[in-house]
Specification:
The complex is a heterodimer of chains A (131) and B (188). By secondary structure, chain A is mostly beta strands. Chain A has one domain. Chain A has two helices and eight strands; from the N terminus they run ββαββαββββ. The chains are: A mainly beta (131), B mainly beta (188).
């Protein structure tokens, strides 16, 4: 299975990749470490992406203030970001492959969320959901 | 690495392996449930039809009423007669579903439901499925993803247990095979 990692940009200009050694915590997941690091240092996430091991990048709309194109500048900025893995497991007759695993990143707006989902078993497949 | 382990609880737990199914039956393994009645026993059936839980005295939770208990609580019988379902302990629940991860993760938005084995949004055919998480006061008709039983969020940890009571009733005669259980959750 190809690995997929998140990458964030923070309000202090720092960029962090999921497996960077940015906080001394050997037990928590990388995302929980990031949330703790952000809270400890009074920071905010300004962009969130997914990177695959074969160099594909999936980007959410950024909260950054200096985009290269007007269309990106004019668009509404997210007020928050989130990340997770969504796993589904079935118990059914004659089922051997009974687990599905997706990774998602989420941009939060005042009245809705925009989610980008990637199939972790087949990262060529991606979906966008507006909720 | 994320792993699910489903077990049918009992005097000893029975692991529900990838190609096993959960059998709801009459008084004994493979015995029928009368139409519109609920299960009197619950088992783990292997892919070759064997009773994998035969030596483990598996738990059984039988639906009695949706709101006939104190304060409108649902009622069930898990071996001690009719009781409100908020009196059940974790050890008495039908299923223990463990989600484990190598790192400490938070789990959110977990759901549990039955479906027809093909399309998660579609209810199982001719079966009434009632489920609850230990601590709930009422059963949920957990039939199809749109009617799923919502499970509690869990704080950070490497192991997360969900205890679920489940009871089923056939609406028609015959073995029900368009029938599966599914659990989904988010971890981060």
């Amino acid at each position: 299975m190809k690995s997929i990692k998140w990458q964030v940009a923070l309000s202090n200009g720092q960029q962090i990749l999921e497996d960077n050694d940015f906080k001394n915590d050997e037990t928590s997941s990388a995302w929980q470490k990031l949330l703790s690091y952000i809270s400890d240092n009074n920071l905010e996430i300004t962009s969130l992406s997914l990177l695959t091991s074969d160099n594909r990048t999936f980007n959410l709309p950024s909260g950054g203030k200096r985009p290269r194109f007007k269309a990106f500048y004019d668009v509404e900025k997210p007020v928050g970001f989130n990340f997770g893995h969504r796993i589904g497991y079935d118990v059914k007759e004659n089922s051997v492959e009974n687990e599905e695993l997706f990774i998602f990143i989420e941009a939060t707006y005042p009245n809705y969320k925009l989610q980008l989902w990637v199939d972790e078993h087949n990262p060529d497949n991606c979906w966008v959901l507006a909720q | 690495m994320a792993t699910f382990t489903w077990t049918l609880q009992g005097t000893s737990p029975t692991t529900i392996d990838a190609d096993d199914i959960i059998q709801f039956a009459g008084a004994t393994f493979d015995s029928p449930i009368t139409v519109s009645s609920y299960n009197d026993s619950t088992h783990v059936e292997s892919s070759v039809g064997a009773d994998d839980s035969s030596g483990n005295t598996p738990n059984n939770v039988k639906f009695i009423s949706q709101s006939g208990g104190g304060g409108g609580d649902s009622q069930a019988d898990w071996g001690d007669g009719t009781e409100d379902i908020d009196a059940i302990t974790t050890a008495e629940a039908t299923l223990k579903i463990n989600f484990a991860h190598g790192s400490s993760v938070v789990t959110t938005d977990a759901i549990f439901y039955a479906y027809d084995g093909t399309t998660p949004a579609t209810a199982p055919t001719d079966i009434d499925v009632r489920a609850f998480e230990v601590g709930d006061t009422n059963f949920t008709e957990a039939e199809g993803s749109g009617s799923a039983l919502a499970l509690d969020d869990n704080s950070a940890g490497t192991s997360h247990d969900y205890f679920i009571g489940v009871s089923c009733s056939p609406a028609s005669v015959g073995e029900k095979t368009a029938f599966a259980f599914r659990m989904e959750l988010t971890y981060s």
